[in-house]
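thread from #wetlab-drylab

HS: before we spend reagent money on co-crystallization trials with pyridoxal-5'-phosphate, can we at least see a predicted complex? here's what I'd submit
DV: go for it
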Amino acid sequence: MSITEKLTTLKKALPKQVMLVAVSKTKPVSDLMEAYNAGQRVFGENKIQEMAEKWEEMPKDIQWHMIGHVQRNKVKYMAEFVDLIHGVDSLKLLKEINKQAKKHNRVINCLLQIKIAEEDSKFGLSAEDTKSILSSEEFSELQNIKIVGLMGMATFTDDVSQVKKEFQFLKRLFDELKPQETKNCVLQTLSMGMSGDYQLAIDCGSNMVRIGSSIFGARNYD
Ligand SMILES: *Cc1c(COP(=O)(O)O)cnc(C)c1O
């Protein structure tokens, strides 16, 4: 199947309230353009440099999501255009995003990444750290960022019950924090689910899925 066919089939299968982020990391602009021409406007990348290059080259009505781990010294390269940063996992990083957003007179939307997997390799905040950030004085003073939701990555395993437990944990935290709205925190987005587990994630309450290989095919890292 072509990218267009895979994308169209996938979109038909997704419930209306679920936003599709087409994860295009490592893929050439020609692949992204095929998805664009099939109507896709939201793309996810995990390297800031690569995302910035694609942003420069491609039509300007695309929403660019940074889904990877973010190094503070690179925030400046995406502050002008990034639409949503999924992987925010510290107050320090939030402050840097705030600082760079201010330079461009923008408010940058962010998701807090929560560690739900058992693997040590995955980044993210604990539920406790999340609560302490959101209730801190320092956070409340940040005017150029807005926390619009939570993001999580489940353990890479065939054990469906394990993955389900992790998604349910994130959904419970989301529901618990959601009512506590402040000026710069209004939780609406729950970003969970990838090619291998998005159906389960949606069943568990996800409203944003990040899907790469099911649209663009397997990635080649060398
Ligand atoms: C690569 C990546 C995805 C997409 O993975 P697929 O299995 O190709 O769908 C989703 N989320 C994050 C954070 C990623 O890095």
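DV: The longest strand covers residues 145-152.
HS: ok that's useful, forwarding to the group
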